[in-house]
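Notebook entry, structure prediction.
Reason for the run: the old model in the group folder had no record of what sequence produced it. Starting over properly, with the input documented here first.
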Amino acid sequence: MLRILYHNDHIVAIDKPDGLLVHRSAEAPDRTTCMTLLRDQLGQLVYPAHRIDRGTSGVLLFSLNPATARLLAERFSGREVEKQYLTLVRGWSPDDGEIDYPLAEEPGMTAVEAVTGFRTLARCELPIPIGNFQTARYSLVLAEPVTGRRHQIRRHMAHLRHPIVGDTVHGEGRHNRLFRENFGVHRMILHAWRLSLPHPVPGEPLAITAPLPQELEILFSKLGWEDVVPA
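New structure, fully documented this time:
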């Protein structure tokens, strides 16, 4: 059963597990998705307001009727929705910054505007040799995408030379392997932590937070980051 973070007559937000698709597509025709599970759990049709990657966990918002779906689409297209993600990246990332680097939605398509703000919350250095180095450095980053391109945070962090650990497409195999072998973490370390927006009905501010999955909570504790994640 999916964990529900917020639910009223118009919208519902779930805590999406990693490894589960938002909905079926031609590229990934999974029969079990967030959309089908939530539909069956609530006993009614649901309409995804946005997408997050299969390997990403955290806040995922749905509308419960077509009219609210249209209102939410306007909120997202009008950039009235603030999205905050927690991620663990290779190396010691800058304290903060903005990545303004156009991205193509698909290979061969024209690159379009893509902007991600970020802030480094913590850093660590592990006494584990990797490559030509005797230690391995990592950072905990709060990423705030302004636009919503496919794999945006993953591609932007890789462009910054700080790829996300566990990302098998845009990341680095050596670092992914280090976390599998030393920490038993087999997922991409990217979590949709908070979503803030004007409620579609009647319009008051709404902020929905998804607590860290237990696997990431244990990992961050091992890295000395117990009290780093914002409240």
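Summary: The chain has a mean pLDDT of 94.
The old model has been moved to the deprecated folder.
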